Amino acid sequence: MQKQIGIGLIGCGGIALANHVPGIGLCKDARITALCDADQAVLGRAVQQTGVSVATTRYEELLALDSVDAVIVATPNLFHAPIALAAVKSGKHVLCEKPIAMSRDEASAMCDAAKHAGVRHMTAFTYRFVPAMRYMAHLISTGAIGVPFHFRAQRFQDWGTRSVGWRQVASMAGSGELGDMLSHRIDFAHLLMGEMTEVVASLRRFIDVRDGQVSDLDDWVSILGSFKNGATGVFESSKLVTGGGEGGRSRDLCEVNGSEGSLIYELGMPFHIRIGKKGGSGMDSVPVPREFLSVPGSNRDPYATDPLVGFRYDQDVEFIQAILEQRDCKPSFVDGVRAQAVMDAAIESDRLKQWVKIPSC
Ligand SMILES: NC(=O)c1ccc[n+]([C@@H]2O[C@H](COP(=O)([O-])OP(=O)(O)OC[C@H]3O[C@@H](n4cnc5c(N)ncnc54)[C@H](O)[C@@H]3O)[C@@H](O)[C@H]2O)c1
User: Fold this and answer.
1) Residues 270-318 pLDDT 10s
2) Residue 41 CA to ligand 1 centre (angstroms)
3) Are 246 and 157 in contact, with CB atoms under 8 Å apart?
4) For labelling alongside 250, which of 60, 153, 158, 174 has CA 20 to 30 A away?
5) Where exactly are the structural domains of the chain?
6) Mutation pick for ligand 1 pocket among 42, 60, 62, 75 (CB with most ligand atoms within 8 Å)
7) pTM of this structure
8) What is the CATH topology of the domain spanning 127-330+339-356?
9) How many Cβ atoms from other residues are within 10 Å of residue 64's Cβ?
10) CATH 3.40.50.1980 correct for 5-125
């Protein structure tokens, strides 16, 4: 029998415990063998929750372990690059949380290093795994709506003046709403439409103090963009949609209009997609076929978990499957670099108040 792939969790905070621990738990060929968190109290809670006793506050110690074949990096954004680069140097496969870096240059360095070392590399663009998004990508790539004209994405949540922790600190996060929420939707655009060529963007901060702590990052962002295939893109994301709710109960919409029809994805309806056909009378809600409800190789019963939660585990299944099958992860660091290039261009555009070209990745 093949040895199980040993996983080291680096950063054992919110997302590690919510998404990655249950995600790896679904993989019969992998198990968590070591934990690392810089905060001793968080580490202690993770030890209790997972039952994994090998635990350290220093990631270098975790990377030195033979029992660790691959790592999941789930720290604040500032630490992604140094940890991922060290992991790659130690020959470990890396699944890194989004945004994978603080800049495109940093992301590129991570991607180049991982390719050079021959390890698997993955960006945690979790929402690619929503069944409706997987089906939407399939429909567009098989020509169901003809030639795509327009891409549209909206992520609206009501955070008010609540603290978002390190996410409101530029030196830790790099960008605010742009990297936190819109990075996933930039990835949708790449998945559905291909490369972007240029953007003009605006970033705004309305709240300077959140729960008594200074916030120096954007809580609203909007991007207008062009794609290599000639299509247009409009993106908007905000933490200040008062009364709009949060999570799956708030607006997360992605729409593509093509020459033969239109498609609408909404996170709140992960098992349905809205389809409008040329000459039809409007948009109809259509169930996502069974084969798109989970990723190939997953033994997850999509009906057994909350539909707004279960898909998140599939990204860990994809990571493990890619390691086993010795193929590229989808999405890989290449996708992380692409998203970062758009984010950098958006920040630059906001600074210069003009259109900015996106370098090809
Ligand atoms: N893919 C998604 O849907 C999704 C959702 C939420 C968060 N995220 C991303 O996940 C990452 C973590 O977010 P979170 O919400 O879990 O944050 P968090 O603050 O809850 O957890 C981060 C943990 O990292 C630890 N840490 C900080 N520096 C460290 C270091 N040098 N070594 C080891 N541990 C260190 C902190 O002590 C903390 O416990 C971020 O990049 C965030 O953008 C992704």
Assistant:
1) 999 999 999 999 999 999 999 999 998 888 999 998 999 999 999 999 9
2) 15
3) yes
4) 174
5) 5-125, 127-330+339-356
6) 75
7) 0.97
8) Dihydrodipicolinate Reductase; domain 2 (3.30.360)
9) 11
10) no
